[in-house]
Amino acid sequence: MPTDVPLNGHQLTLGLMPLNDAAPFVVAEQLGLFREEGLAVTLKWQPSWAALRDDLQTGVLQGAQMLALMPLTSTLGLDGRATPVISAMTLNLGGNSITLSRALMAALGEDGHDLSSPLQVAKALAAHMRERKQRGEPLLKLASVHPFSSHRYLLRYWLAAGGINPDRDVEMRAVAPPLMAAQLASGALDGFCVGEPWNSLAAAQGMGQVVAGSHDIWRFGQEKVLGVREDWAEQHPLAHQALIRALLNACAWLDRPGNRARAAEWLHDEGMPEVPMSVVTRGLEDVDVEQSVDDFQQHNPGWTIFHRYAANFPWRSQTRWYAAQMQRWGHLEGISDNDLEATLARCVRPDLYRTAARKLGMVVPVADERSEGTHPAPWWLSGEAGQVPMPADGFIDGAVFE
Amino acid sequence: MPVTVLIVDVRSERSAALEQALLSAGFEVALRVDEHEDLHALVEQHQPDAVIIDADLPSRDTLEHLGQLGRRYPKPMIMLASEDAPDLVREAAGAGVSAYVVDHVIPAMVRSMVEVAITSFEAHRALKGELNRTQTTLVQRRSVDRAKAVVMETRGLSEDAAYQYLRKTAMNRRLALHELADELLKAARRR
Known about the structure:
The structure holds 2 protein chains of 2 kinds. Chain A is of the alpha/beta class. Chain A has helices spanning 23-30, 33-36, 49-57, 70-76, 102-110, 118-134, 150-161, 177-186, 198-204, 214-217, 230-235, 237-254, 260-271, 277-283, 293-299, 316-328, 337-347, 350-360; strands spanning 10-16, 39-45, 63-67, 85-90, 96-101, 140-144, 170-174, 191-195, 208-213, 218-219, 224-229, 379-383, 386-390, 394-395. In chain A, 43% of the residues lie in helices and 18% in strands. The mean pLDDT of chain A is 93. Chain B has helices at 12-24, 39-46, 60-69, 86-94, 110-155, 159-172, 177-190, and strands at 4-8, 28-33, 50-54, 77-80, 99-102. Residues 93-98 of chain B have low confidence and may be disordered. A 5-stranded parallel β-sheet of chain B has the order 2-1-3-4-5, with helices on both faces. Helix content of chain B is 60%, strand content 13%. The interface between A and B is medium-sized, with 31 and 34 residues.
């Protein structure tokens, strides 16, 4: 049995991607939060999600910033080689956007479509695709970032909400975030769904226009998670708790007013020096206390929440929503509902979150699950130490997920 | 028919040497490209038998996606690891997955490198296909059993009669038995 002794320079290598939501790792390092918890952390920037997954599965990394589905698909053996990976913490809510090329936006505009909302743009795109088909023109090409990504399923959800069949009406691809803007410019892609700062970059370079953000499709949905190998977590429960606490503190810092600009500077310097600093800063902006959440979200489609609204709690129901999207498109064939539930229970670990959050006096929700799309207005979540204010949630097509 | 290889590498010196080695070993090299090319279109166009790619290139996610798309696309991938990572090489090679990592390329070894990668990939894929079929059959059988239980309960039928009812309905509706079972279960859950 492990005892509660302080860690002394426990060495860890963590993987992360050049994205704005890698911020918690960079902030924890810069503020010395890992060190305060007795951890000696090395951050390893990864060139692709595939490389990050391989490094975690082969033991080069003990933990990583991961797409919400990755612990599940790694454990099920769908992604790389079967390796149990667990997540006890969500790193952020939202942060992705859908960007369409300038040429495509011009074509939609010429057709005289209503482009006043993310849903209207999807409907206009559906009409445009039908016209292209009639004229015998090739399918449009849209990209997300990795087979088992939130981006792939948010993009498919948005397309379907507009009446587009992503398996028939469009050609779907995967392109790594740093290459997206260039492929849009060269015409290899007509649009994409990716995390910040890559949408802001395409917009700043005049190559594309952002037409929808994560929150337009699924308000305050789970985005990246902290993933660690299950065997590592079992062998080093104290180091795992220390890691969660350090990242929780980093996330809390990121959502305190006035800190985002500094975080953007560190992110830029450490992980993506090729992206202009102003673009990183722009994509990382947070709502001001004076502003309305709805208004801010409309003008900042890539808005990323790191801590507020019980953001770090690993809702099993949110990961299940992504799994339900995989089922919807036939990407989970051969996995029974029972096996899926058992694997979700194994991979998503609110119990481990609670231990860490209680020690820090942070928000601890009472339930492991919640419904989505049932809160049209701000609501109160039951927490162990009282009620937690939550924003309205919902899906672009008005669906309810229970 | 010659075996066709696609090389994705930004280090042109290394990839030129690799191309030479592959050609003299009797392979056909479809193309040498760097990461800024439209890799998705190139793979579709050239249909290579294997892809050799620098493990540090972002384009790997494009190949992974192609691998998920359908039977035509998954290709054995040979990773060129630029830094010395002997543990990683051994681990990935031993895992029998499509990724086969080498840290540097010895011309004399090129032939066996590509052949081993293709063979182990095919073997792995055959095994995975077998597993998938077994799993699917199991899942299908389970849903038929559950649908049978639902019919027994809602219609007050014996097990045998419930099964005959399912078979007849499936035949009338031109559905496979497990497809009908899934529909029934979905409807039962909504109620």
